[in-house]
Amino acid sequence: MKTAIRCIDTQHYRLPLTHPMTDASHGMMTHFEVVLVRLATESGLEGCGYTYTIGVGGAAIRALIEVDLKPLLLGKDADRIEQIWDLMWRHTHYVGRGGLVSFAMSAVDIALWDLKGKKEKAPLWKLLGGSSGQARAYAGGIDLQLGPEELVEQTRCNINKGFRAIKIKVGRDKLSEDLGRVRAVRDFIGPDVPLMVDANMRWSAETAIKAARKFRDYDVFWLEEPTIPDDYKGLARIARDGGLPIAAGENLHTVYEFRHTIEDGKIAFPEPDVSNIGGISNWMRVAKLAYAHNLEVTSHGVHEIHLHLLAAIPNASFLEVHSFGLERFMENPPELRDGVMRASNNPGHGVVFDHAALRRYELT
Asked: Is 233 a catalytic residue?
């Protein structure tokens, strides 16, 4: 069987950020981790998948793949992606149902879809349905440390790069400081550029409602992760009483969690992350769930893959272009023009890593 999985290799990297970045929950960040999976079949085709962390857990994710998933998957038919996904899910269910297991599954599942695209000689976005071939993009700043003047300068640079939508972090100790930062960016970009804000789970529901009411004066497009993801009733109260659309989902790892967040939490913009929800297979399940609720899907992180996913579905919202800067280690990062990124027509997801650049940061 030429589509049998012959080998699975993993690498673990600790990569420096372009500069220290801060948000309301994780504090100051200087590095992030990437766990990369290369999966080959008997025919010689190879698929590449990966996940990332904000600096914690990468070694455990790699160990899960090497110790628990690799023996399970060797010899399996790589074409049967749904079967393999379900096999991984059930095999790790007792210790999984999310968490680190979902990160490990994501890397494997992405590699399988990349392999399928190469076999079919089709780009991922067409393989998955091929809706538009492109996605509107916003600059996702991780910038809680920046004052108003610094935020305006960062925004100026992002507009000059071609962005036509901007997101900044909020969640400082004083709401007045958040308001001053939001006001400065809105005054700079004018009334027609979408402005999102992200609190990274900092607040209680009551504090978030107070903040949302104040942000409404600046025509905020969405308020992201205003409180912990498990507080479905709190999210619903924030949406109802705060008067702003809510985006959430980067910390959710199952389609069942998204069902509750959509139906009970009343979020407006589901935000699955392909690198931690179990990969492309599960991300598409969330997109279809959102479609059934007449909601648009946004993304979190790894924009080079999310570009294909949003380009594949009819209910796409904005693509987050993340600040971590993984494209520095790619040979062919996607290009932005006038607020839009277009997915390539290369087979699979088309991401080609510069392994020479990565090698100096590899952990053993």
From this structure: no
